[in-house]
Give the backbone structure.
Amino acid sequence: MLQTPTSEQTARRRVDDQPVVLRISGLRTRFALDDGVVDAVEGVDLEVRRGETLAVVGESGCGKSVMARSVLQLVDRPGRIVGGQVWVPRPPEPTAAGRRRGWFGRTRRPPRAEEGPDGMVGLVGADPEVVRAVRGKRISMVFQEPMTSLSAVHTVGHQITEAIQLHEPMTKQEARERVVDLLRKVGIAAPEKRVDAYPFQLSGGMRQRVMIAMALSCDPELLIADEPTTALDVTTQAQILELLGRLRDELGMAIMLITHDLGVAAQLADSVAVMYLGRVVERGDLAEVFRDPRHPYTQALLRSVPKLGRRTGERLAPVRGMVPHPYARPSGCSFRDRCDHFIEGVCDTALPPVVRDEHGHEVRCVLYQEDRR
Amino acid sequence: MAEKTIHPGTRVDQPTVLGPAGEEVPLPTPDAETSAPGPEPATAGLAVGGTTSPWRLIWRKFRKHKLAVVSLWVVIGIYLIVAFAEFLAPSTTRAQDAEYAYAPPQQLQVWSDTEGLGLHVSGYTVTQDPLTFARHFEVDESQYIPVGFFVRGEPYEMWGFIPMDRHLIGPEDPSQPFYLWGADRAGRDMLTRIIYGSRVSLSIGLVGVAASFLLGLTLGGLSGYVGGKLDALIQRVIEFLMAIPTLPLWLALSAAVPPTWGPLTRYFAITVILSVLGWTGMARVVRGRFLSLREEDFITAARLDAVSRPRIIFRHMVPSFSSHMIASLTMAVPGMILGETALSFLGLGLQSPAVSWGVLLQDAQNIRAIETAPWLMLPGAAIFVTVLAMNFVGDGLRDAADPYK
Amino acid sequence: MAMYVVRRVGLMLVTLLAISIVTFWIIQLPPGDYVSTLVAAAETRGETISVERVAALRERYGLNDPFLVQYWHWITNIVFHGDFGQSFAWNRPVSTLIWDRVGLSFFLSVSTLLFVWAVAFPIGIYSAVKQYSPGDYVATFFGFVGMAVPEFMLALVFLYIGVRFFNQSAGGLFSPEYVDAVWNLGKVLDLASHLWLPILIIGISGTAGLIRTTRANLLDELYKPYVATARAKGLPEWKLLLKYPVRMSLSPFFSTVGWLLPGLISGETIISIVLSLPTTGPLLFGATETQDMYLVGSFVLILSALTVVGTLLSDIALAWWDPRIRHQYQGG
């Protein structure tokens, strides 16, 4: 994505003048497996501003979850971030309590991290201290599996209190009161009782509410929600989405919503980024992209979704072909094998450039290149 | 088949593992490739989930575990020794020569200053302490004992019915001493006895595991598949058996074995004792697998299709955990071997004149004996190598058993 | 929790009952009984016992009663009078022979258990966290070697090294001057200086096994979602490891303590025989050789009972440790 001009004025007009809370540039995450190398994320550029909700959509295996985890440096072995940078506003200096002294009372050198423009710091390659100061405090995360994402041997209250006490100078009692408040805020009945419950005593929807409460416990600027409703039933899903929307408006935080469900994206997001095989192929205002999809992949994706008011008898069109095997991705445009507009000698030779219109609607496809029109 | 171009380093010969009853179970060969070689050779050989048989995936994963592969060959080698013990041993277990009691090991040499090139060992000079009558051996370089292959020596009966007298290696003149690994207190060749001893020690492992496998599979399978009261009952029995310290119980049980029993009866008694206590681990594995498989969607689907219960078990469930079973079996054999050895070592298992590694180690119980003849501990080294190799193979199999993980 | 403990204690009593029945069955297993042994002993002394007297003796010892009645006499004598029967070989009540040795056996096994934990846990945790590091390979290799060496072989090697290179015997628990001494500081120190070798030998295979188990358990937990959640909170890495995955990986460990204990008792038995330690091992061994069945049975009974109690304690510890198990039995 070297040709990509940095997109300052993209996305929603509403948030255009707001400060950036997360800027991802050229991020590459690679899994070195026994049988070969998988580039799960192959150069992603994204930006989230305060108050914005960005939906990252794509099929399973397109790298959206890995991308989300890469932001907080949470990729487990054998995955590794091999390129690019994740820029965030410089986190506050660790509090005296959080800042441990070195052994033998030796004062530690200040934590190191790459300096970026606008007073931002890069998390890739930064000292663990810097990353930890961002995790949970500036950027927090809600995971896909509410059933297994909480420790089964600690009470819900304990797990949230721990998050609070890591970042805020609070006594146990204060933190506990805050937890009860948070649980009430995320819609858990009888929070004074639930605070001492173990996760296995709660339903899936309740656990996801607990996860959200935990993520919100330190008033983050950005909440990364990785498929937050996938494991839940439809009713609970609607409730959780509604809850997320309400909390976003109340707290003024930004949300990065990772989902494979275009409906979920439409319900919550302002802007959307469509990912295919580790790359962002189209991004822009949500209404704009859904009304006027440009990339053949986005078009195919939208054709495969049932709509109300569509003529009866019209068939849903699934995206043609299969997702290529991760070890054997096509050269050039990775969508070329499944694309109806494949141009031999063009699409298979080089990665298409990103083309952007005056509204900031970006697409990575040769069909929209000026000189080809 | 373009097997060689896909896997440049692949051996073509087909390795085998030993099955529960000692028969050789062929491992899936690498040329069972089902996916057509793609245009790019670099990617064509890679795992593409769903297009390759599980056995092939297991074998490929197993092959990555280098130590396990080497160990597999060691284990195969050891079982070949078991099979051809009579021929491979330089002598027989009965042959003894009090002249050479506690003779130290000789070194096999190819060069001699006097005789030039030629495979040989050196003889001994014996001195006797005039006070204690203790005999002291010195390897005497000047005595040249030529050694040859396929030489005539002690007569034996191959597999108990083919009379032969050829040995793989031995002195050209059978009357000369040949003790590569030293001699025991009766002047019997340790190497020969260790080779013969492998028969009992290793077969008891297999027979014991086969017996406990049958028990464990039946009871564990019943427990896991039927569930309910039967499951609870079998679980209690397992917990009960696992709670008892095995060695005291072995001691007690073998104390109850009448001393008058012959070697064969004892052999079976020991096997039964070992497997009666050994099936519990197997049963737990089987039950656990059954329980988790029972909840799998494809089993539910089969049940909803009105597939009969035996068919569900044998066509759907057993294949899905057979790889785990093989791994567990391999891991169980060393335990049995160690069990037999411990019992025989204490004199409660097999007894002389039967030869097993544990029986041989009985001679090493006495600190005086191992002080004069440390090579009496060599059967322990044999046990160590065997058990280590088997553990590595088992570990490799267990890691490979879940190819989709 | 209380319900759970009650339930487990109930199960333990059932297991103990089963063990005692099996033990008594083993005692009865060899042909002949107490009286025929007496008769044989008398004959070797050149005396004869009349047939009437034999019958009277049988009647007196209840040997004509059905199995269950005999069992009932045996077990009630043990439970209510501490009377384990008579040792033929020693011609003394079993209860006078065993308790000192059971005490030492128990002490040795528990010391070994502590040693195994102290060594195996840190190594296992390190091995899992630093998977595929040189340290992991060393630990793994040691684990395999430790599991492949028969304990008695190790004892023999140590004996040999002791005699050959240090010219001292590695056997025994006390130096000669302390064997019959009353307990004092010197004797305790002397015991400690003799104890480390048996503990090391008995503990090696258990340690090796536990390193493998800890490593495998922790590797199972290390990449679970809740670890990512905890990490996403901003927890420092080591604190996170110990608080979440390590703690979770200890649950299966608690449930295997019950199996480690029988193994240690077995190892202790055989090592004591080789190193001639004054614990239950050599006495039990001698008793099996002479078919002194009441003595054999008493040892099996006591050692099994101790193991079962140990298992019970580990189960209760597990319930205290893991709320999932605690709550499973709530009110039920």
Remarks:
- Confidence is low (pLDDT under 50) at residues 1-13 of chain A.
- Chain A has ten helices and 13 strands.
- The first strand of chain A starts at residue 20 and ends at 33.
